[in-house]
Design a protein that fits this description.
single chain; alpha/beta; Ribulose 1,5 Bisphosphate Carboxylase/Oxygenase; 2 domains; four-stranded antiparallel β-sheet; three-stranded parallel β-sheet; 9 helices; 9 strands; globular
């Protein structure tokens, strides 16, 4: 087995794997880790007490993070007529109809989010094999299939993100950058956990939030005190 780097060994000294940390202490620990040459993302992972195999226990939704994600979000709007201008005026990076559908057919997916008007979904749906695996397929639940393209674009640009449980019953979501203040990161985490709580399926029984952890791109995973998540 290869020897761990000096940076890794230094990080291990900062984290007690047997303890659960408060949000403030966990963020402070991540900020104490040896620096990198880029602004790391901060991610929260939350294990839910549901059965991911059951269709009536799926957890999915959206949340507007009060302090944004810190990432540049590139938005494409698939629409026709006046909706194209509405989207561009609202801040969309790209907007159009068949021209962009053709680009996607040819392999172009260099965007973060795709918004579509309902009348265009028949054609967008044909691109499911391309967009689905990349998490780019517009859906009504995520608010990315809508006639109000201007509002959708503005919300996404302000920090609206989608969360979705994976097949292991875990939600992983970026909640900002390490350069954010602790207060900003805590506010974003609270907004996310509250949105997840509101999305609890009526068929879910027992403990809903099972465990949670926070990490940065090149930092350690830190176990969180569940009282911080469920407060």
């Amino acid at each position: 087995m290869g020897r761990h780097s000096k940076r890794y060994r230094e990080m291990l000294k900062l984290v007690n794997r047997n303890l659960s940390y408060t949000l403030v202490d966990s963020i402070a620990t991540l900020k104490q880790c040896p620096p990198t040459k880029f602004d790391q993302s901060v991610e929260v992972s939350i294990k839910l007490g549901v059965d991911p195999r059951k269709s009536d226990q799926q957890v999915r939704g959206t949340v507007s993070l009060p302090n944004g994600t810190g990432r540049k979000t590139t938005v494409l709007v698939i629409a026709q007529g006046n909706k194209i201008k509405e989207a561009l005026d609202a801040g969309a990076d790209y907007a159009g109809g068949e021209d962009y559908l053709e680009k996607i057919r040819n392999g172009w997916t260099d965007v973060s989010v795709i918004v579509s008007t309902p009348d265009m979904m028949r054609e967008v749906g044909k691109l499911g094999k391309v967009l689905g695996p990349r998490g780019l397929m517009p859906t009504p639940k995520a608010g990315t299939v809508t006639s109000d393209v201007a509002q959708a674009v503005q919300e996404i640009k302000r920090g609206k993100v989608e969360f979705k449980m994976d097949r292991n019953g875990v939600i992983n979501s970026s909640i900002g950058k390490l350069s954010f203040t602790p207060e900003q990161l805590v506010e974003n985490i609270r907004a996310l956990s509250n949105a997840i709580a509101r999305s609890k399926p009526s068929t879910a029984k027992g403990t809903f939030f099972v465990s949670a952890a926070i990490s940065s791109t090149m930092g350690p995973g830190i176990k969180l005190d569940l009282r911080e998540i469920t407060a």
